[in-house]
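job 3f2a | input accepted
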Amino acid sequence: MRLSLAPWSCRPEASLGRVVPEPESPLRTCWQRDRDRIVHATAFRRLEYKTQVFANFEGDHYRTRLTHSLEVAQITRTVARALAVDEDLAEAIALAHDLGHSAFGHAGERALDAALAAWGGFDHNLQTFRIVTALERRYAAFDGLNLTFETLEGVVKHNGPARPPLPSPIAEHPLASRIDLFAQPPVEAQIAALADDVAYCSHDVDDGLRAGFFALEELLDLPRFGTIVREVLAAHPGLERSRLAHETHRRLIDAMVGDLVDEARRRLAATAPDSPAAVRRLERPVVAFSEAMREPLAALREFLAERVYRHYKVNRMARKAERLVSDLVRAFLEAPDCLPDHWRARAHDPASTAAAVRDYVAGMTDRYAIDEHDRLFKMERERP
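job 3f2a | predicted structure (384 res):
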């Protein structure tokens, strides 16, 4: 049963539509169709084998870009329902937000950005936009996924209002003339962005504990979150460590989501926007963590940076990943005739070659990138 939507909610019947007009579905709203198209996209399936923090082959239970995206989507729907906005639009934006990530997480992105610096570098958010508007090739009538303007707006504004100058793929897209990209995102997009923070802050604690990078007791000194750990340890003495970790993980999510919803309700009550357009005109987001949560979150992020993201084992893998991605980009820029046929056909001059190399390498999963590196750099005797 569909819940009543608040005045500030986007409404599917008021959608601005798609670049290529399509008949409406009798079974799904326009944003349910967007969500389904994202889930069926090739780029979405590839997220299963792309690193979040720990490389895919380091263990079967660490988060990947795919499981991270699913957790973000689940948290997004919870918050969207609590704030009485369109859950399907919010979920679609959440599921799409990481489609443009390269192999090997941020290490791979850094390597791509550096190797392609002479050609504009690399940005995973822009790459997400290019995937959903051009690179996916599934439908007979259009390239990309032909998502609604509202979903595209959420993708572009994942980190808040866009800043000038707009990258050419966005500036030249019809979206730029239909929606003010320098205004605040709608509530649904704001929720997806903050759900991303909730997901990674909580699940990176879980994965860090699983990896043995720190013990649960080392979280006790953290403001607010240390109290959660203390309560878990006191309530369940003698419980196996893995279950203590999971209990902590779920309570971390609950604390952050509860704070997010309470603060959003307070801001919505104070500003009383009567439409999505009114939300866009506001000077600041309506979905945010409270002032009381900001210090605990900053402390948790710093703890994760020190104990997980800069752990020597993660640094070693990152170093290898950066070298591997750099090797691939350099090799294909120097010898575009080594690109597979589809990508080679796009390489007509230095600029188009760089664009083809960017899209090819960025789309690789961890294991495909390793295999491709072996094919290019590892000499093997051909079998008869």
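job 3f2a | The chain has a mean pLDDT of 95.
job 3f2a | closed
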